[in-house]
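Work Package 4 report. The design task specified in the project plan requires that, given a folded chain encoded as structure tokens, an amino acid be chosen for each position. We show below one input record used in the internal validation round.
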């Protein structure tokens, strides 16, 4: 089944490529508006989002982090997080897909050699590749066999966000006779050795194509193993920045979903909700408890958005000089990321639940699907326990302990 999103009325080919952060945010808001039109219907259909991904490509958002000389946006992570937030406000699933895509696009810089970074970013930007990833650390490791000039990936992962809608997939595994050595590689998604199982059937983020995948001897040249020279990897502290970045991507689409819920609820309250019959008021927008609820939820959202923006800016020196980052700087940044992840989780869940208090009984109809905002946030916030994020902050406050780099910290 394909998606039902109507083709955008905007011909992006006639528009100038955005250059500034503001222009990219304006482009993201345009995409948000197109996605929001039938987001409820597409969520109910649960169809593969080919058209939505085409929209991300046509709009140029997939090349946001790409080099300008190859047609990309040349932007940095603070802008990327805000763009993800905007898209997620229109459709949480598509915001997640964009966020994961940008993470895997950037991953070449995380672990690749200079030559690999230049080649991957140039090709991905020119061709507008859409990235997926099969890197779930909770599963058994994918096994990599050294076969001379090539390596092969064999195994299964429970989650592979992007799957069928991706052009390329990031794989990760461990060498067969050296399980301490992890290898990342980018491979074409459409090939016989990769089977996507179409078994993503969760209550939220229904359009993220996050089902399981089987790898049956996916062949990759050793030259394409990210960061390896002569089959040897030289680790850097910067290699461990994958977790802070992906956690801030999560924050971005959590806050975007919350913003979408709040904005759509406010529109419904202004145009459809009725004042309580015993209130003595004519309009729902004049109800004191309704006003208080919107003020409370908006203030909380603004506060976390501001914290998220601040933490993103704090990381710029790390990203701009990867070879200079220290374990101390990385650890202190992760503590701040953990703090904003915890607050974003709590606030997004609160907003997407409490909007029902000011919408009224008629707003629970399945056609409106206001519940999709909560379902989306609830589904993804279970990715890793938020209590462990608060623990990272608490240990740092009490005993000056920095988080040790893991797949989740």
């Amino acid at each position: 089944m394909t998606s039902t999103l109507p083709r955008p009325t905007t011909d992006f080919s006639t528009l100038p490529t955005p250059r500034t952060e503001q222009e990219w945010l304006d482009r993201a808001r345009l995409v948000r508006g197109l996605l929001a039109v039938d987001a409820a219907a597409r969520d109910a259909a649960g169809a593969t989002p080919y058209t939505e991904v085409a929209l991300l490509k046509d709009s140029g958002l997939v090349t946001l982090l790409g080099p300008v000389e190859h047609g990309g946006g040349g932007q940095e992570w603070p802008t990327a997080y805000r763009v993800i937030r905007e898209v997620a406000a229109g459709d949480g699933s598509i915001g997640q897909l964009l966020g994961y895509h940008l993470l895997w696009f950037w991953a070449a810089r995380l672990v690749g050699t200079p030559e690999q970074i230049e080649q991957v970013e140039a090709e991905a930007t020119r061709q507008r590749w859409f990235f997926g990833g099969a890197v779930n650390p909770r599963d058994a490791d994918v096994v990599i066999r050294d076969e001379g000039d090539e390596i092969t990936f064999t195994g299964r992962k429970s989650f592979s966000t992007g799957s069928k809608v991706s052009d390329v997939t990031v794989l990760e595994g461990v060498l067969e006779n050296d399980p301490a050595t992890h290898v990342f590689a980018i491979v074409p998604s459409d090939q016989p050795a990769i089977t996507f199982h179409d078994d993503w059937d969760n209550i939220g983020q229904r359009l993220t194509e996050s089902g399981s995948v089987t790898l049956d001897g996916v062949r990759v040249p050793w030259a394409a193993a990210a960061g390896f020279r002569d089959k040897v990897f030289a680790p850097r502290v910067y290699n461990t920045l994958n977790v802070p970045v992906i956690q801030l991507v999560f924050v971005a689409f959590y806050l975007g979903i919350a913003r979408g819920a709040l904005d759509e609820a406010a529109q419904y309250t202004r145009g459809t909700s009725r004042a309580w019959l015993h209130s003595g008021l004519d309009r729902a927008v004049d109800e004191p408890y309704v006003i208080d609820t919107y003020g409370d939820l908006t203030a909380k959202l603004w506060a976390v958005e501001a914290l998220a923006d601040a933490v993103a800016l704090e990381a710029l020196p790390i990203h701009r000089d990867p070879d200079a980052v220290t374990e101390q700087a990385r650890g202190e940044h992760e503590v701040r990321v953990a703090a904003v992840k915890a607050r974003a989780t709590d606030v997004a869940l609160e907003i997407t639940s409490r909007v029902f208090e000011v919408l009224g009984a008629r707003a629970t109809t399945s056609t409106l699907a206001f519940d999709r905002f909560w379902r989306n946030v609830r589904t993804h916030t279970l990715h890793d326990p938020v209590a462990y994020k608060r623990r990272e902050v608490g240990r740092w406050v009490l005993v000056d302990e920095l988080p040790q780099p893991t797949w989740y910290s």
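The domain at 238-399 is CATH 1.20.140.10 (Butyryl-CoA Dehydrogenase, subunit A; domain 3). Validation will be extended to a larger panel in the next phase.
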